[in-house]
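Run folding on both entries below.
>entry_1
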Amino acid sequence: MRGAFGDASKVGWPGRRVSPAATLGVMAMVAVVATASPAAAGPADGTRRDDPAELARRIGSAAAGGIRAGASGGFFVLGLAATVAEKHDAAIAHFTEAIRIDPKNAYAYGCRADAWFYKHENDRAVADATRAIRLDPEDTSSLVLRGWIRSTRGQYDKAIADYTAAIQLEPWDGAVYGYRGLAHSLAGRQDEALADCDRAILRDPDNGENYRTRARVWIARERYDRALADASRAIQLGERNADAFVDRGAIRNRRQEYDLAIEDFTEAIRLEPGHARAHALRGWSWRKKHEPERALADCNEAVRLDPRDATGYVYRAKVWVDRQEPDRAIADCDAALRLDPQSFEALLWRARAWTLKKQDDKVIADCSEILRREPANSWAYTERSGAWGRKRRYDRAMADLDDAVRVDPKYIKAHRVRAWLRATCPDDRYRDGKLAVESATRACELDGWKDPEVLDTLAAACAEAGDFAAAVKWQTQALERFTNGEARSDIAGRLALYHAGMPYHQTMDR
């Protein structure tokens, strides 16, 4: 798992945190193993004993000697070496053998939990972490790992309990405050989240990871300026790894600074060419820059690099929707949901693909499931309203749009679509020019009076309200800004109606 604000629950696991007691235990184990091997005497060719390559050779030889002697520690050391080399299957095999020899080896359970986590086997990771905690209630690293996984599963209260237990054991460790803050943020408790992140930075102001965590909280509060400042501060403090650049690039995507975002993702890929999420998020940037081929190439690479991460499939589905290829989008969303059944984005984009196929019952089903899980999701209300409109259930369509604006007063599309329905609905019981103008004006204010589709909607609202001079004014501006030939033809047709003093009415289809 790697950091990406597109899904805050999937930021990178920081790795096993070794407590002082555990460190001494590992050192003692290595010492015991080393004395069991003749290789421990050191090289005879004068090589420095602290040379990393030589140290690795001696530890490997020492571990082999310990294994021959039947010691659990030999397998444990080999497991650590395999973990460092990111050979997680080998690490699991070594830790398993260490546990067979010594079933009470809490640290072997904890380290095997890490290996399961890196293989995306989270059920097994939680099981091993729980065993480690039972054997050693002061294993803070296993508490933090279990809390992390629980947070990714939406079990925020359980995650916070794990983090709190770790903090009670090591109150000086600022990083755990940051992890607890992130769990509070994901649970919607932003004040508690920010307080924990501030505690983390107070305890360790030179730790860039703490600033990265606080940046995630600022994202949840939609304070992208502060999020960017914290993400940049993390990089200045030495967090110049791929994840740190991915984090900052994701913030820049939110700020619509796509060129700068692409620079950050490209740097992340330079630092770590196999970083799947960097490719996926750069694909999103290319998509927003209307470069679909580059977007698709990056998303394909993300899926190739990590076929078990749902993110690449979801981002590729967005490209398929843009290209009007709903079947491919649905296939990718289905794959994402098999990997991550809790993925809101996969349900959202599958609903949008069903919309392209005019499968309105399926649109309603997916949006309703989203709203069951997250009742304040304005996107789902808005998308479902379109399906109700096509089914001529204008009462339900309007109710969904009212709810969309209620839960997110800044959601431009909800204001625009509500205005469109109020202005153009074929059932005159739902038309209201005054309310349409209010909604369309709010959409324009939020958009900065730039989007031609929003201006087109405002023109229709003005016409329904009887203000044809204003309708002509806004429709003319919309026509000047539209580049799509078919759309320009539709807008020109409506402009002719407004010049003739006639409003525009049709079934809601946008």
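>entry_2
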Amino acid sequence: MKFEQSAARIDDIIRSLENDNISLEDSLSLYQEGVRLLSGCREELRQAELSVKVVDDE
């Protein structure tokens, strides 16, 4: 999933978790998905930062 798609999905997850009508099981599942997506976004940002650093060093 691309960074932008992951960020949009994380926003959707946050909105769902803020809903009072969601079950504990669904909340946990969404939370776990959000953590995985966030980890992927952080890694993608780290890679982008390294790429910028390489270009900047040249």
